[in-house]
Amino acid sequence: MIFDDPNLRKIDQAYIDSLDDIEIAKKLASKLLEDLKEAREKLNENPHNSSRPPSSAEPWVVAQIEEDTGKQEESDPGNEGDSSDSSDEKEADAKKRNRKKGGSRKPGKQKEAEGKGRTQKLSVTGTVIHFAQQCPICDQELTESDFTACTGHYVIDIVMGKEDQPGITLTNTLHIYGDTACACGYVSHTVAHRCAKEEEWDVELTEWHLVGPMLMSLICCLAMRMRLSRRRIGEFLDDWLHLRLSTGTINQCIHEAGRACEPVVEKQLLQELRRASLLQADETSWKQNGKPYWMWVFITVSTVLLIISRRTKETVKRILGDFDGWLMSDGYIAYRDYPKRLRCWAHLQRKGEGLAESLNRKAQEFGEIVLSVLKTLMDAVYDARTRASPAEDLKAKYQRLLEKFRFVCEEYKYFAFQKNGKIYEKTQALAREFLNDWEAIFRVLEHPHLPLTNNEAERILRHWVILRRLCYGTRTKQGSRAVGLLASAIETCRLRKVSPWEYLAETIAERRKGLSPHAIPEPAR
C-alpha distances in angstroms, 516 versus 157, 196, 262, 368? Predict the structure, then answer.
């Protein structure tokens, strides 16, 4: 770049009007044009035309690029091949195009492919015989001697060590089911329990499963907390536990664990969320099968709810319902339906800092005014919190400052039209944001005990943003739902100082038996 920021700030409309020499004006225009082209080239850089990583692109940009690429491939006559191509080459090209466009081929085993059975043989560490304890006809107690085995399956699980004997032990238990004959002639038959199927889930909750609850909890820990891919989880289990599980089995475990947590989230966490007196909300972008979605987070003092869905008012209404507590959020319009809303000052402060660093003088002036007003009021709020005496009415005390600032916002919100250009667009947007959310922004002056930011929600999201950058989101609706349910249970357990992995294993075991899971324990007072 020819001009650095300090020199560029000096070049304004007044300086340009003062140039009488045409040659000097042409030289200035040439240099500005060169800088503009270089800046525009950098602005247009993306992972497809530069060395920038794929994670640096917004999900909606990626989706648009993929859509444009697919349309271009469909309309490109070169993809169809000519008459001189051999049939093998045409078939290879067709397969290549199908892979690029997604085609009809789904991930995993195909219908025509030959299946593979489990090849690893583990030593049996224990046997559990499931026989009927009592005859349902005559109520006579039955014994194992009356049992006849019919079928069975293996369950591989881990046993956690204790404080005096730390470590992990891998177990392979043989579960046997069959008939138990009674003296009255009735034969009781035992089978592994299977939960009823649900339309939203392709995975079953059943005791007839190779992976035990604690091992499944470990897999969820590696995927959700340690952010390992399915393939890396398989590599870890093989290297450290000498256990070989397929990628499909590992993925099935994560989805089944998500389904197991569904009643906990829907019946406990969601209800606690709606009864809370103070709630913080935030959202971040997420990709589902390459399409733009959003991960929402709602957090109270002891409850966290995460969900992956569209960014619409319907999503907010479905989660919060008739919530009547304090709601701390950003400036998204969907939150405006709730009267006791608070605005995050950190978002406004960052926007003010962006304007204060602007190369435009007017935008810079407005940014400095915003930062000055927010700093003055922040100091007043923090001072009111630490004072032992009853808090004074800060809104009345700073009424004159607020009136002056409102007048400035009214003045700056029309600059984009007065100057006949987009150079003041961000200034106008921030001024209108203050005016539209005036009561929500400065309501904290009447209630200094309330938070100024939604930093708690942003801290929760930070971990999942890193996971999104590593895995590029999810591929299916079921995968997105499993991530949201598991994330809600894990983060709530961590907030309440409860081991999320022991609780998850217990929940999976109870749900496989068809029982209702225990609620996450309340935090100690």
Answer: 22, 13, 11, 56
Domain count, the chain: 2
Q: pTM of the predicted model, to two decimals?
A: 0.82
Q: How confident is the model at residue 81 (pLDDT cuts 50, 70, 90)?
A: very low
Question: Strand 126-130 and strand 168-181: pairing?
Answer: parallel
Domain holding 363, by residue range, is: 345-445
Tens digit of pLDDT for each residue in 95-121?
555 555 555 677 667 777 777 778 899
- Which of 219, 243, 258 terminates a domain? The answer is 258
253 and 369 part of one domain: no
Rounded to whole angstroms, the Cα distance separating 229 from 126 reads 31
Cβ–Cβ < 8 Å for 367, 352: yes
- 3-state DSSP of 369-388: HHHHHHHHHHHHHHHHHHCC
Domain contains 350: yes
Q: DSSP secondary structure string, 105-135?
A: PPSS--TTSPP----------EEEEE--SB-
* pLDDT value for 129: 94
Taking only the tens place, the pLDDT of each residue in 211-239 is: 999 999 999 999 999 999 999 999 999 99
Question: How many residues does the structure list for the chain?
Answer: 525
Residue 502 lies in a domain: no
Residue 234 maps to a domain: yes
Residue with tokens 């929402």: 296
| 55, HSE (Cβ side, Cα atoms, 13 Å) | 9
Mode of pairing for the β-strands spanning 168-181 and 147-160 = antiparallel
